[in-house]
């Protein structure tokens, strides 16, 4: 047996902004430089990735979405969002450690 938990960041209205999938998408955008490249890397449809990015940007702001075709365009991620990824990852690691502690305790009952 084990404990499990999903972690996400939500706005003041309780609507999700950024979770595990969004973090992976933004990281892939940083690595590839574009939504298109990120969607290919993660095997997501471009439309899905674009809509997800628009939702994140509506809440966080600061993303520069440059339109273009091959060898044009691109997406720039603001420092605020990069810092949010770091904070999310830190929270995820901390929660995971707590879950491992309690998983160990529950498994020792056997």
TrEMBL record:
The name this protein goes by in its record: DNA-binding protein
Coiled coil: 81-108
Keyword DNA-binding: yes
SUPFAM superfamilies named in the record: Winged helix' DNA-binding domain (SSF46785)
GO molecular function: DNA binding
InterPro entries on file: Molybdate_resp_trans_reg, WH-like_DNA-bd_sf, WH_DNA-bd_sf
Keywords: Coiled coil, DNA-binding
Lineage of source species: Archaea, Thermoproteota, Thermoprotei, Sulfolobales, Sulfolobaceae
